[in-house]
Amino acid sequence: MPLSAFSTRLHSCLLAAVLVLGFLLPGTAAAQGFGVYEQGTCVMARAGAAVAQGCGDGSSIYFNPAHIAGTNGVTASIGATMIDATGEFTYDYAAQPPYRGAEVSLENDPIPVPHAYVTYGLTDRIGLGLGTYVPFGLETNWPTRLSDGSVFDGAFEGFENRIQNIYVQPTLAYQVTPRLQVGAGPVLGISSVELNQLLDLSQQQTPAGISFGQLGVPFHTAFARVNLEATNEVGYGGNFGVSFRATDGVSIGARFTTPITISYEGDASFSQIPTDLVFPASSPLAQDLNQDGTPDPTSADLVVASQFDESGVLASYQQLSEADGTLSTQPIDTEITFPYQLVAGLSVHATEHVLLLVDYQLTGWSAFDEIPLTFANLGEQVREENYDNTHAVRLGAEVDLSGTFTARLGYLYNTAAAPDEVVTPLLPESNRNQITIGFGWQPSDRTEVNVSYQALLQNDRRGRVRGGLPNEPVTTDLNQGVYGFGANLFGTTLTFHL
Amino acid sequence: MTAPRLPHSFSAAAVLLLALSVPLLSGCDDESLTAPEIQDDLFNSYVALGNSITAGFQSGGINSQTQAESYAVRLSEQMRTPFGVPTLAAPGCPPPLVQFFNESGVPAPQRPPQTDETTCALRDASLPPRVNNVAVPGATVLDATSNNTSSATPLTQFILGGQTQAQAALAANPTFATVWIGNNNVLGPALNGTDNATAVETFSTQYSGMLDSLSARQSLEGGVLIGVSNIAFIPFFSPGPVYTALEQQGQFPQNFDVAPSCNTQDPSTGLTPLVPIDYGFGLIGQALQNPGQTVTLDCQAAGTPALTLNEVSTLAGTVQQYNAIIQQQAQQRGLAFFDPNDIFAALYTNDDGDPDPTNDLIPKFPDRDSDEPFGAFFSLDGIHPSSAAHRVVTNQVISTINQKYGTSLQPIEAPALPSGP
Q1: pTM flag (> 0.80)
Q2: Cα–Cα distance, A68 to B69 (Å, whole number)
Q3: Domain A3-497 is classified in which CATH homologous superfamily?
Q4: Which carries the bigger pLDDT value, residue B406 or residue B147?
């Protein structure tokens, strides 16, 4: 195929892929941390084991760019993985009512995570490719209240959280020797983040420099909802791979994907929530409402109303809103480092029709140590995460049933990134066992359809639903319940060999 | 592409077996919920409503130390139930007195250095997730359901933060409650030298309304209503006849005269006129400062802080009626009732044969040379029970609860009550 024709097709495919990705949001994390590893249905069915030998569907752009070398013609794939996650937080039976033993369920809808790849064998030794995939995504939707109307503590940590990072990666691969291939490509990360939290009045400072809590306002008094959102910010990195065919039946491979740091410039908007608190006339917070020279019982909502702008203040206090109030809509900056991935693996043709694969993956989640938030009016706040690097072992098997049908099976175990004291509603993560199964059908030389299923079985893990108070260290002592989490993943990829 | 074959064969089945066995190797350990340690499900969520006594106010002040000594906290510890206390940071709000009398035996209440009665260190920044001790010093019955009253104080704000006691209690979904409130409905007037206590009918309506509010969430399974304390048992008030006796013993300045009106006693009830300590010692001080002028303590004079026998009788009668109402409410609602005057009467009337009124378990006249001028059972303000008294109350409440609900709360270490007159 002439290069110009390839360029035209590539452009069309990329446009289609970007359009698809624009409509589909990445979803709940299905790998370590908030990583999403299901970027190709064939590989997914092998539990992600692909660094030593790819699937030939273009997904090697992500899993090991070296495998693009030596391909023939144009291969284009498009697909998605539907993640149906369920989870809950169950308060300890030692917790105080109304929380004792209460179960709060995750309210996530099934979320599609798309991928699209195009590869082109420029020569026998040079392969080109362009891929777009979503290796990092997170969505956790929690209710803000329990069934009895009590505020869910976890909503102060975050109740509608979304992080997505779409990678766009042009790729060049070269076959150095008949046995050795290398490949690499720059990565453009396009990321959005959204965090919704309730704000606790007791933790807010009064003009006198003391907190409302020190003036008696109860812990976890929801007085505002904050939405932090930044979209389509970009960062840059790279993806590198090498593959070596040791014998005719044994291959080894490795991949390194660099970390990508993305700086976000977004907006923080605040909406006032009624507290139902009325400060008595004897309170130092009471105001002289009737201008008779003595303080009157004063609603807490009135006291804080001037902190909100017109769009955020309660309707009854519109006249008190201030455009430049502390809790007015304001710019916010933050930064997230998406971690490196280092993968090494082995593939073995056990028989003519049976391929076995094993991958080990190290992911540098320790880079996700904090989320710094710099508000224009509120100043700097830091959310400590202190994630740990994670380890994963992936075992895959592929059986060629008839030349047209292929069956795949896999098992994956990965450790958790979140340390014991940071298991929160943002990412209620634990060690995970995952089992995969899938089938490929190639009705013609030009078309291939893959479907797969993955069961994510996460160990229950103790976690917390609140942060530390002033002078209170964030330790596992704050854990007051157990998070359960699981997911069913369904993948489909359609591949064309042109 | 045709897959090359390995010279030595692998069994796909063996690999599958290996794959399936890995989960067993990698572990599927679930972490679990923490089990409750609560003594009885009845005490899943215990809340305490009340006034200064329940809040832990002692020696004219309150801080985390005195709060921890409240009978309500002691009781929760025996229940082994989480009990959030609205902790007031050191030195307090205000800081408790460190002495009441100076070296000359003159009332000169002293607080810790660099503090006074206006000092308030506010709440500790580490807030409890839930407040279970919602009692507020100075609260009357009406204050339990309204913060828009004349008796609300800054402590109302610092402890409840804009809620009422009932609202704060309901936020904890109480399964069990103790309610010891109403003392200030009589103590307040008594400290002002009047018998103008809240009308009994009004008290009844307010008390019933408060209990109705507590029942709003229907989580309440049990509780104890504690009666109103008789002001006559408070060592802050000295009996008029004691002043007469001390005058006759030459304990007072020559120019300090105790009028015969003080030396009266109701023969049927034993009640006497009562002289507040600040008033009595104020007059003694006047006598000392004006040696040439006779200063008279008149227990019948109108408009003085001294309570006449008639006023004392009225207040005592009011307390009895209040307690009858409280007891009736307890019966109607299936709650337990405990009369604290059983304790204080036993302490007050204990006759150890020592005629010195300063040596009584509840001194009829303060012992100015002692570190405990109001005895072991009252703190340095002469009004609020000491830690020892809270312990005694705790055990009596425990006994009441066990009797009513068949529970097995264990008593705590506490001074023994005298066996009675």
Answers
A1: yes
A2: 75
A3: Outer membrane protein transport protein (OMPP1/FadL/TodX) (2.40.160.60)
A4: B406
Are both B292 and B334 inside the same structural domain? no
User: Of B6, B147, B161, which is closest to A349 when you measure between CB atoms?
Assistant: B6
pLDDT of residue B92: 97
Number of Cβ atoms within 10 Å of the Cβ of B218:
7
Confidence of residue A471 (pLDDT cuts 50, 70, 90): confident
Q: Answer yes or no: is B22 within a domain.
A: no
Residue numbers of the domain that contains B189? 41-233+309-405
Specify the DSSP class assigned to residue B198.
P
H or E element that contains B309: helix B309-333
| pLDDT higher than threshold 90 for residue A93 | no
Asked if B28 is an interface residue toward chain A (Cβ–Cβ < 8 A), one would say yes
Q: How confident is the model at residue B13 (pLDDT cuts 50, 70, 90)?
A: very low
For residues A467 and A75, give the distance between their C-alpha atoms in angstroms, rounded to a whole number: 49
Structure ipTM: 0.89
Nearest Cα neighbor of B337 from B413, B408, B420, B399 is: B399
Q: Are residues B111 and B213 in the same domain?
A: yes
Cα end-to-end distance, chain B, whole Å: 106
Looking at chain B from residue 117 to 146, which residues have their Cβ under 8 Å from any Cβ of chain A?
122-132
* CB-nearest partner of A280 from B128, B156, B173: B156
The answer on pLDDT for B266 being more than 90 is yes
Angle between helices B341-348 and B387-405 (to 10 degrees): 130
What's the N-to-C CA distance of chain A in angstroms? 10
Average pLDDT over residues B163-185: 95
